[in-house]
Design goal:
The complex is a heterodimer. By secondary structure, chain A is an alpha+beta fold. In chain A, 57% of the residues lie in helices and 15% in strands. Chain A has 14 helices and 13 strands. In chain A, strand 3 and strand 4 form a beta hairpin. Chain A is elongated. The two termini of chain A are 26 Å apart. Chain B is α/β, with parallel strands linked by helices. In chain B, strands 1, 2, 3, 5 and 6 form a 5-stranded antiparallel beta sheet that branches. In chain B, strands 7-8-9-4-10 form a 5-stranded parallel beta sheet, sandwiched between helices. Classes of the chains: A alpha+beta, B alpha/beta. The interface between A and B is medium-sized, with 23 and 29 residues.
Chain lengths: 399, 208
């Protein structure tokens, strides 16, 4: 009965209740969305750098080097000579060097020239077909294959650059020989081939490229290389050494990603603060709504008291109204944040081939739940205390 | 059933209400007539244990109630008193049936829909049970008030100007129903009013 009265009272003031719930929903949805996004980005970023100690490439922004070489989202910093990188790889501290050569794409999906060690690093599995061997043979990541609608045996012409609008390489076509299984890493959205294929496809056109025309010698170029060390000692000495004593740049993914998240973190924190303010306003609106309704319903309260109700029971009834409102707001907010995540995931995967999908309840959201409940209880409790001050006889006689 | 002697009450030091002694037996009706300002509502609130008298005694079933604590008084009201107010007020968000059941609930008794339906039948408001209280006419509202006052089978029914807002026809109906229902459950009925129309209906009359 108590719940019924509270619920009927909420229904009785539809607009007021709607406003309270709406504000709570927005606040909760924003915080929850930010938590989900932040967590998933961090997960994704962390997963892709695991095992990569160092990235070597052309001088420029270290963050850009990491983003382009590890996450395949930013543009590369430029090209470097394979010989220079190979020289670094000679260092006994280096366990493994994986060369990467980017420059072309097919419908926005990057074609990356590399070797088998790249596949080993990401522990990929071939879903159908086989590994590339010969010239111009490629293997597709799972998402790429699905989205560009190519299967084993198909051929395609790549475009120059990393945007799908780039100039087409018309004279030679790549051939799909294999498709990889879903790996839940950056590999899913790539087209992988051998270094030779990338070099070959550009050789015919070298005369058209001013920058390459100067040194179209036997010296082979790559975009960057992923380096793994045998021991942490490599971390201590090599990045500094490379950055100071060579034309190359060495960037440590862990450091750059941390920096990126520090920058992002400020934005996320700012937005979370804003969301918390919205939640607070929701609390105030519950407060005002109950305060007003208590004034309007003073006679009703006195009546119930005269019918033998204890004051505490009526206090609980009003408290329950606040709790129901904030709970409804919480549920709607969580639902809204899931819809938001779904939309963002769709948008991101179209634009950056970057998938975020996490719909389960986060531990942070349990705190959010407690927070919403506290806001509801507090906002309802303060005006509801007025119950204890009602003079039954006076209210019944005068109103 | 109800016996009051030498009740007095004052809101402030300037004016003190002194009420005559009276009593009312089971199944009887007592009409207390008085013009505005003679302390009718005050007397009713004293009987309803909503106010504490300065002096005097109120006994229901021989039990002294004038000095009960607020908590005991509220329990007493829930279990033994049915009150009908001048302006029929309800919990607006609930329909008629729920407003009746509310009386059971607030007295911590089992919510009896059968009781509510029977009373509604007797009072001729059966069709109104699922309606919102705010759309009822004055006469209908007053009948719902009566039904609510009877929900817990009280020993004493107090009515404060139950007819002052009603036309002659409804006035007679309401009083008749009120009297009959009180007799039915064997409760003492005390009506406080300035409505001279009621004078002829009752034998026991006190004028303030």
């Amino acid at each position: 009965m108590l719940f019924k009265i509270s619920w009927k009272n909420i229904l009785d003031k539809k607009l007021n209740s709607f406003l309270c719930i709406l504000l709570m929903t927005l606040g909760i949805a924003m915080i929850s969305l930010l938590m989900l996004l932040g967590k998933q980005l961090q997960d994704k970023f962390a997963k892709n750098i695991s095992g990569i100690d160092l990235v070597v490439g052309a001088k420029g922004s270290p963050l850009q080097l990491i983003l382009s070489s590890v996450y395949q989202i930013d543009n590369p910093t430029g090209n470097v000579f394979l010989d220079d990188v190979a020289a670094i790889a000679q260092n006994p501290l280096v366990k493994e060097m994986i060369p990467l050569s980017m420059g072309d794409n097919y419908q926005g999906y990057r074609i990356v020239g590399t070797n088998k060690k790249y596949f080993e690093h990401f522990k990929t599995q071939i879903a159908s077909g086989k590994m590339f061997k010969g010239n111009l043979e490629v293997v597709l990541g799972a998402s790429t294959a699905k989205n560009v609608n190519l299967k084993v045996g198909d051929t395609f012409g790549s475009s120059h650059g990393l945007d799908s609008e780039g100039e087409k390489h018309k004279e030679s076509n790549y051939k799909v020989v294999g498709i990889l299984d879903y790996n839940n890493s950056v590999v899913d959205n790539l087209i992988l081939t051998s270094l030779n294929s990338v070099w070959n496809i550009h050789e015919h056109k070298d005369e058209n490229h001013e920058n390459k025309a100067v040194d179209s010698t036997i010296k082979r170029e790559i975009t960057s290389a992923i380096i793994k060390f045998r021991s942490p000692m490599g971390m201590m000495t090599m990045p500094r050494n490379i950055n100071q004593n060579s034309k190359l740049q060495a960037a440590v993914p862990a450091i750059e990603v941390n920096r990126l998240f520090e920058l992002l973190g400020i934005g996320i924190e700012g937005l979370q603060f804003l969301a918390a303010v919205i939640m607070l306003i929701s609390g105030i609106s519950v407060f005002v709504s109950l305060y007003n309704s208590l004034k309007e319903r003073k006679y009703e309260m006195a009546l119930m008291l005269s019918m033998g109700s204890s004051r505490t029971r009526l206090f609980l009834m009003l408290l329950l109204e606040g709790i129901i409102l904030s709970l409804l707001g919480f549920i709607a907010g969580i639902a809204l944040s899931r819809i938001g995540i779904y939309l963002i995931s769709n948008a991101l995967s179209k634009k950056f081939h970057f998938n975020v999908s996490q719909f389960s309840l986060q531990t942070g959201e349990i705190y959010l739940f407690i927070g919403a409940l506290l806001v509801g209880i507090l906002a309802a409790a303060i005006p509801s205390l007025g119950i204890y001050r009602i003079n039954i006889s006076k209210t019944l006689a005068t109103e | 059933m109800l016996a009051c002697s030498e009740l007095s009450f004052s809101y402030d030091t300037k004016k003190t209400f002194n009420f005559p002694s009276f009593s009312c037996e089971k199944g009887e009706t007592l009409l207390i007539l008085g013009n505005s300002g003679t302390g009718k509502t005050t007397l009713l609130h004293l009987l309803a244990l909503l106010l504490k008298p300065n002096s005097g005694s109120i006994k229901i079933k021989g039990k002294e109630l004038a000095l009960l604590t607020a908590k005991d008084a509220s329990q007493m009201r829930a279990n033994h008193l049915g009150i009908i107010y001048q302006k029929p007020h309800f919990v607006n968000s609930l329909n008629v049936l729920d407003n009746l059941l509310l009386a059971n609930y607030l007295a911590d008794k089992k919510q009896s829909k059968t009781q509510a339906r029977n009373l509604a039948q007797n009072l001729g408001i059966s069709e109104l049970l699922d309606k919102n209280t705010s759309i009822l006419s004055g006469g209908e509202q007053q009948r719902v008030s009566i039904a609510r006052a009877l929900m817990n089978n009280p020993d004493l029914i107090l009515a404060d100007e139950p007819t002052s807002n009603l036309d002659d026809e409804n006035c007679n109906k309401v009083i008749e129903l009120l009297e009959n229902q009180s007799k039915n459950i064997g409760a003492a009925l005390v009506i406080v009013t300035h409505d001279q129309r009621l004078k002829d209906n009752f034998k026991n009359i006190i004028t303030l």
